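Whether sequence alone determines local backbone shape is best considered at the level of individual chains. The sequence in question and its structure tokens are set out directly beneath this paragraph.

===
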Amino acid sequence: MRTWFMPAIVASLLASQTLAQQETSPRDIAADHIRSAAFRPTSAIAGSGFADLAGLQDIVGDARIVSLGEPTHGTRECFQMKHRLLEFLVEEMGFSIFSIEASMPEAYALSDYVIHGEGDPKKLIEGMYFWTWNTQEVLDMVEWMRGWNVKNPPETGKPRLQFTGFDMQTPDVAWKIAGDFIAARAPDLKPAHEPLLKDVQALAASASLGQVTRGWTSMTGAFPAEAARGKKLTFSVWIKTQGVDGWAGGWWRCDTPGGVNGFNNMEEQQIKGDTDWTKRAFTLDVPADTNNINFGFILSGDGVAWFDDVEILLDGVKYEDPAKFSFDFENDAVKFLSGGSGEYAIKRSKDQARSGKQSLEMRRRPEAEVPKVEPADVRDRARKLYEDLLARRDKLVELQDARSVDWAIQNARVLSQCAAMFASDNGFNVRDASMADNVRWILDQNPGEKIVLWAHNGHVSRGGMMAMRSMGQFLSETHSKEMVVFGFATGKGTYTAIKQGEGLTRDNVLVVPPDDSVEAVFQRAGLTTAILDIRGALASSDATAWAATPRPMRSVGALAQEQQFFPVVARDCYDVLVWQGETTGSRANE
């Protein structure tokens, strides 16, 4: 037998193996890793058993907080999977508190049904205000929670499964609970605090997106970033003003992974006083890494401004999409702008037009129509009410049980949080810090019990959302080691949201994930559903670098939007990713 040619064969085999390794791209390695490391639920429907979820016990471990996110506020299969995960956490791991991104006292009312069977669950869900939760999926989960408590009465030794909420954007019910308590147990506080609700409501009316405008207003639209990346923009609009003592203008903002890189709002043009129709314009270069573009119109100070005949040129080519943008403001059905505040009246005006029959009008309201509240004063008074009750707690528990006293004080705190949000220049951060405080309060009221949180991906994220701090970030400061955060991602399909000009619709389309996105990595793995622990992801590893470096990931709120992807480092935001390849819109309760 000849053996002299064996080294050549070995060398040839080694060369072939090396070549095969070289031909395996980092994308293929990442996809292989997901296929091998993820476990694959066979269903998103509760009641399907737990054999395919066994890996969750090791992932959750001894955590006291499990946060469940969502990629949009209207995704049916995501809601169903969250219900199924709640079922697992309750039945297999002893979790006993559920808490949702909804106004705190209104959400707590659902526990009357879940624990005692009192009330109509549909009406109670509707009483949480948000259409996002008024769905068949949430109703099914509430009915399951009620069924669990029926099957596990107190004599079994298991804690009651509670339905709670941690948001604080609406003051009315919180004030009623605190106000009734004050009238009964601390009547001397009533005269000083009785006007508070009216003032907080007036403060809210003068705010926009949680921010008090204090003498200016803006209308905002979203522009498709993919159409403008790397191009020279020329933005022009015809403007007419009357009695403007600040300035009026059109504006444009480019967001990139490193922050805002490209902005103009015409302030330097000083468009003010009384001016006839004049074409105003600016140019800027849109960065190639732009991931979000917003544009719109602004009015600062008193007076009125009209805007008409907007033109957008990209590398000298006129951009038009009549189905999405009515740049001449003639088509009332095309409502591509949102925003405004209580200090200003905004409408499409038939009284003034540069061409056609109407224009966009932004007008400072007469002083008599503007709410007469000082934001800092309302904030401070609401805070003092909370502090006054808190200081009396020990004496108040002599008159009433501690749990009822603490609940009244907490509702005063919710009122204070609401006022602070509306009085702040950064209401988003105030809201998320307050939600984290409310979660901590729920845990303090239930020592030793474990909680499941339900909210948007952006709120549960450990790494914040865009330039804002998130509830998950604040909770990480005190509960990092006893919290596990699940982020959700979906590849294609539809979602429920409010579409401008049409209202609530289920057929809003999920934009195709960018090739470098988190979602695209999962799509290449070819899995229908997957749950993947990403806590050990390393930027230096081809298998996991996608989770440890900045990548676009879908984030859609309550409004339908074209720009759906924003940069995140998935590992820094979430401990676990739940992938659902195709999803549909949530279904509203009748």
In short: Residues 248 and 299 are 5 Å apart (CA to CA). Residues 1-22, 208-214 have pLDDT under 50 and may be disordered. The first strand starts at residue 65 and ends at 68.
